[in-house]
Amino acid sequence: MSSEAGKSNMQQDPNGNGMTAVAEANAGLTLAEVRERLKGVKGKKYWRSIDELAGTPEFEAAVAKEFPDQASEWIDPVSRRGFMKLMGASMALAGLAGCTKQPEEPIYPYVKAPEDLILGKPNYFATAMPFPTGGVPLLVKSDAYRPIKVDGNPDHSYNQGSSDVFSQGSLMDMYDPDRSQRATVRGNVADWADFYEAYREKLLASKGNGGEGLYFLTSAITSPTLERQWSEAQKAYPKAKLVQYEPALAGTAFAKGFNPQYSLDKADVIVSIDADFLSGAAYPGFHKLVRDYAKRRKLADGDRTMNRLYAIESTPTTTGMKAEHRLVLRASEIPAFAADLAAAVGGNGASPSGYSWTEEQTKFLNALAKDLKASGGKSVVIPGLYQDPSVSFFAQGINVALGNVGKTVAYGTVAGQASPSDQVADLKSLVADLNAGKVDWLIMLNTNPLYDAPADLEFKSAMNNAKMTVHLGLLPGETGAEAIWHLPAAHYLESWSDVRSYDGTVSIVQPLIEPLYGGRTTHDFFQAMLDEPMVSAYEAVRATWKADLSKGGDFEQNWRKALHAGWIDGTAYTPGTTPTALAAAKAPQPVSKDTFEIIFRPDTNVYDGRYANVGWLQELPRPITSLSWDNAALVSAATLTKLGVEEGDILEITANGRKVKTPVLVAPGHPENSATLYLGYGRQEGRVAGGAGFDAYLLRTSDALHYTTGTVKKVDGKWGLAVTKSHYQDHRGKLAGGRGDGNYSLEWNEADIRGVIRAATLEEFKADPNFANQDTDERSIDHKDATLFPNWQYNGNAWGMSIDMNSCTGCNACIVSCYAENNIAVVGKQQVRIGRNMQWLRIDTYFEGDLSAPRAHFQPMMCQHCENAPCEEVCPVGATVHTPEGLNTMVYNRCVGTRYCSNNCPYKVRRFNYLLYSDFETESLKLMRNPDVSVRSRGVMEKCSYCVQRIQEVKITADKENRAIKDGEIVTACQQACPSQAITFGNINDPGSRVKKLRDDSRSYSLLADINTRPRTKYVAEVLNPNSELAEAPVEHAG
Amino acid sequence: MATKDFTTNDPMIDPETGEFRVLGQGQTFNSVTAKISDIVLTPHTPWGWYGFFVVAGSVTGILMTAVTWLFLKGVGIWAITQPVAWGFAIINFVWWIGIGHAGTLISAILLLFKQGWRNSINRFAEAMTIFAVVCAGMFPLIHVGRPWLGYWLFPLPFTMNVWPQFRSPLLWDVFAVSTYATISVVFWYLGMVPDFGTLRDRAKSPFAQYFYGMMSLGWRGSVKHWMRYETASLLLAGLATPLVLSVHTVISFDFAVAVLPGWHTTIFPPYFVAGAIYSGFAMVLTLAIPLRKFYHLEALVTERHIDNMGKVMLGTGGIVAYGYGMEVFMSWYSASHWEFFMMWNRMFGPMGWAYLVLIFCNIAFPLTTLWVRKWRTNITFMFILSLIVNTGMWFERFVIVVTSLYRDFLPSSWGTYRATKWDYATFFGTLGLFTFLFLLFVRFLPMIPMNEIKLMLPSAKIKPKEPAAAGSEGH
Question: What domains can you pick out in chain A, each with its CATH number?
Fold first, then answer.
C-alpha cells in the first residue's frame, strides 16, 4: 500500500483523554494487580483482542471507525499512475539494454539439464544468496531464462534444500518494480559510463597519494573474492579506507569474527541465552540449527529420546515459545543470568553477578545448571547475537566447562564474514573523518547509512562534508536520494560472486538472468582500483578459486562441477577445538526494574529494512504477534495496562534524547516494563514499504545498538495495525466452559477442548503412545461409513500430507515459498486488516497457559484435502471437485464465486479474490510468476492445491519413463522450504512411503475428525520433554 | 364462518348474517367499485404519492449506484471477508424471501381455508410477495464473485457439457425461488383479471381502456368465466400452498445442510417457514396501515383485519420463539461442544448485542403485547410493532449468518464483520426499489380485489338462493 493509505490510518482519537481511568493505575502496578483489575471484566464483557485488558470503550470506537471507510482505500490512484510510469520506463530501458553485446560468461545448469531450452520445461541452477549471517546455498528454478522460484540447494550439506523467508522473498526483491533503473547524478539521468569516467579519473588522481580521501562504506563483505579484491586494492591504495556497516550485526561478537559451529543433533540439552536461532536466517546457521534441533524431536521408529530446549529471552520469539522451559528476563538482566549460570556450572572462573533473582528465576537457574552438569558433552549453550559480548564469553565458558567443545560445538573456526571488523568503531571514525573534511569521495555500496546508521552519528550532515558521494543500491533509498551519484546495483540473481555459508563451504553466486536494469556490483568498484580494471566479476571469482579448483585436475572441469553442484569441495571449515579468544568480560549490572527498557531487533520479515519493499514479506504475518505491514512497540499485556493504553494507540518513546512515535501491540510473554522495536520500517519511498510502520533507527545510538533504556508516554492518535489473527482472552466462567479469568487465551482453551492441538510430555507419551488418539475420543474415530455418499476408491495414487507439530518452529519459510510457487496475490494492508489476506498456508499460533508467560503451539494450516469435503458438496457449479487421486481441486474457470465452499470449510483455508488482487499490469512482476499456475482474477475462490502442478510434472516424467513415482519425488513448495522438515508429502496408498508411516504413527491425528471430514493432511502430535524439577511445566494434553 | 352465541349488540357481528363483520358498515357494490377503481383511474394523482415516489425513486437510484459499483469493483466493496464470506446479501435475500411468504399464505392457504377476511388484503399482499421476490432474487445474482457467469447455476444445455452440481442447496434455491416467482406472478395476475375487466369498463381515457382491455383477457363476467376463474384460483392455490412451506424450507437448507455449528440443525425448515410468515405479516401490516390511511380505505381494511393479522403473528411468532428455545436447548442437550460454544458465543460473544435485539424484537416485545386485543386493534401500536418485528427478523438472519460464521471450528481463523457503506446502500436500496414498485402498483393496479370484496358485502350474503351468486361457492 502506498504511503497515502498508510497515513490515512493515523487518525485522531476522538476520546483523546479516555485513558485516564486506566492511567490512574499507579506506576507500580504489578502483574498480580493487573490480574485483579481484570477480574472485574469477566463474563459477558468479552471484547475482541488482548487489548481489552483495560476494558475501556476506546477500542470499540477505534474498531468502528477503522472499517467503514475501507471502501475509499481499495485502490490507490497515485500508485497506479506510478505503476504506469515505471512500466513505461522499464520498457524503454529493456530496449536499451538489448543493444549491448555482453561478454560470454556461460552458466551451467544443475542436474536436470535439458540439452537446450525447452519452453515450458524449467532449468535449475545452483547459486547462493549472500546474507550478512552467511550465504544460503540455493537452487533456483528458471523458466525461459527467468528465475521464478528460489529454493535451498538440496544437495548442499549446510541447508539440505531448506530455505527461509529472506531467501524466498529475495526473488520478489529482484523483480521489485521500484528498483533503480538507471544511474543518476544529482537527480538527473546519467550513464554508467559517465560515472566510470569520473571514478577512473579520481582513482588515477589519487594514485599518487595512496588513495587518501577515498572512503568506501559497504555492507558486510561476505564474498571471499570481494575480500581478495579489496586487499589487493588496499595495496594499490594504502590510504583508501573501507568501512563495513551492517545495521543488524554491528556491535555483535559475530561481526567481529565469533562464529561457533553448533551440532545440535548431538545435544540433549540446548540452552538459548537470548539466541533466537529458530525463527529465521537472522541467526547465523539457522538452516542447520533448526534441522538438527528438529532431528532430535522426531521420535520416529520407536525412538523415545529427545532433546530439551531451555530459552532465556528478553523478547518473545519462536525459539522461546518452542522451548520446554522459557524464562523471561529483561534484556539487561540476561548477561547477569549468563554469568550466574556460568558460575553455577563452573565456566571460565565466572563469579556470581550478585544480582538478586526472584524465587522463580533462582529455581530455573538451579534446575538448568543441574541439568547442564548432568549432560556434559551432550549439551550446548547458545549465546544471543544481540546481547552484551559477555554473554558470548560466558556461553563459551560454560560449553568449555561442560566438555561440549568438539562434540556439540566447535570454536576457533573461520569467521562467518569474510572480513570481520569492529563496525561501530569504523563507522564512528568515518563520521569523524567526514566531519573533519578528510573525505574526498565517499562511496557507499549496497548500504543505506542515511536510514540505518546509529542516530547519534548524524550521518546525513556528516555525509554532506564529503566532496563526492556515490551510492550503489538496488533501490535509491534514503541515501541514494541524497548522494550525488546513485547507481543501480545488480541483484545477486543477476551477478557473479561467491559466498561462504555457515559451515564455511564456498558457493559460487551465479547469475540467473542478465541485470534487468544494467546494475553493477561492488566487485566492479574494487576491481577498478586494480591493474586490470575491466576484469568482470565472473573472471574475478574464477581467479579467486583458480588455485583451489585446479588441485584435483582440470580447473575448467572443476569449475563447472562447482557451478553445477553449487559449492566448492573442501572449503568447509575444519571444526576447531580451541575456544575463540574472547576478552574476559564481566556482566554489566542490570538496570533497575523500574526503568523502561527498549530492545532493538532486526525484523523477522524485512530484516534491517532491505526487504521492506517486498510485498510477500510485508504481508507475511510475523511469528508470535501475527502482525503484518507494520512494526509496533511490542509490550506485555501488563505493561500495556500499566501505561494505560490500548493496542494501536500511539506511544512516544524517548531514549537517549531522541523520540519516536510508534503504535503499541501486545506480545504474549514479553518481559515487563520494556518494549521491543523491530527495525526496518518507517520508509517513505517504495510502493510497498512507503508509509508502513515507524523508524526505530531514530532511537538507536552507537553505544546502545541492541537495547537501551528510555521513557514512554501515550500521545494522541491511533494506528490501525494489520494483525491477521486476533487474540482473545477467556473471560468465561466455569459454567460456560471457560477456565480463565482473562489470563488465558480463549483460542487456546477452545483449541485444547476441540482437539486442535494435542500434546503430551515425553513421560506421558512413553506411558501411553496413543495419547493423541484415545479410543473413547469422538475426535479420533474415523467414521468412514457415516456418509450418504459412497466412499471414494483410490486404485493408484492417493496423495497425503503429514505435518510434524514437534518440528515446526513457525519460521514462516513455507508461507513465502507458497507465495512464490502459487502466484499468490499481495492484497495490501487495508485488505489484510479486514481479514482478506490471501496466503494459502498460514501458521496458526495458539498460546497455552498464562498469557504473561505462555507456550506457543505452531500449526501450519492449509487445505486438508478432505475425503468428505464439505466444500465439494455445496458448490452449485461443481467448481471444486475431487480428483481420482484424492485431491480436492479448485477449477478456477468454473468458479462463479458464491463463497459457499468457504463458509462450509471447517478449516477456513479457502481464500477469495474479493477484488482484483492479482497485479496484471506491472511488467516486472509478470516475469516472476510461475507459468504452471493460473493467476487468479477477481471473484474466484482459491486455496492450497498440494502443489498440483508439481505432482503433475512428476507424474508426466514418471509416465514417460514408464515407472512408478518414487517416494519423496514430489515435493510441495512448503515442504521444500521447511528447514525443520516438518512437512512430509507422498502417496498414502504406498505402504512403504514416509507419509504413510507418519500417518500411521500413534501420535498422528486428524483435525476435527468428529465432523467426519477425513482430511488427507494429518498432524503428528507434539511431545515435550520438560525437566521434572521445573514442575510447573505448562503442558496440558488434550483430554 | 361459524356462528356462535354472541350477543346481538356486538358491533363486530353482522346482525343480518350472524357472521363476523369484516368490512365497515354501509358498503355497497357500487361504493366498493368506485372506491377502489377511482384510486387507479383518477387523473389526479395525489401529491403525496409523488412525494413518496420521488423518495423511493432516489433510493432506488442509490441501489443502482451501489450495484454498478459492485459490478465494477467486485464483491470486496462489501464487508464480507474470511471467515464471514456471506453477509448482508444473503441476510437480505432470506429476509426478503421470508417477507414474500405472507402474500402467498394469504392468497393460497387462507383461500383454501375459506378465510373470507383475506379478500381485503390479498391483492397487495401478493404484490408485496412479488416485489419482495424481485428484491430477494437480485441478491443471489449480484452477490457472486463473477455475476456475469451467474447463469451457470441453471441447468442449461451448453456446449461445455457441464451441469450444475445437484447436491448443492444453492442450486435447490434456484429452482425454489424461480418456481415461487412464477407461481406468484401467475396467481397475482389471474386474480386481477375480473378487476381489469371492471377497470376497462370504467376507464375514460383510451389508453387506460386499451391497457386494461388487454390485461383483462376479454373478461365479460359470464358465469363460465367465473366458474373457470374460481377453479383456476383453487388450482393455483393448491399449487402455491406447498410453496409456502417448501420455498423457505429450501432456503433454510442453505444453512441446515452445511456443517457449520449454528447452521447445521434440523429445526431450521419449520422455524424458517414460521419466521417467514411472521415477518411477512409484519410487512403486510407495515404496508396496509399507511395505505388504508392514505387512501381512506378504513372501511375495506378494518380493525378486524389488523386484529386477525396480529393473531397470525402471535401464532407464528410463538413457533419462532419455540425454534429459538429449541436451538438453545439442543445446544446443551446435544452435549456437542460445537453447539454449546456456538450458542454461548451467539448470546455472550462480541456480537451478543445482535442476539439481544433479535430476542427483544421478535419475542420479548410482540409476544407479550399481541395477546391483548386492545393493542392488536390499536393501529399506531400495530404499525410500530410491525416495524419492530421486521427489524427483528432481519436480525434473526444476521445472527444466523454472521454469528455462526465469525467464530467457527478453528479458533485461529476467527474474525469479525463490519458492514460497509455499500452494504447499507444495497440493503436500503432494495427497500427503495420495493417501495418504488409498490407505489407503481397502487397507482396503476387495483390494490384491493373488487370482485372478492363484493362477495363479503351483506348484499352478497343475504341472497343465497340467487343463481347469479355462483361465485360465492368458492368462499
Answer: 3-72+591-723 (2.40.40.20), 114-257+422-588 (3.40.50.740), 261-410 (3.40.228.10), 754-1024 (3.30.70.20)
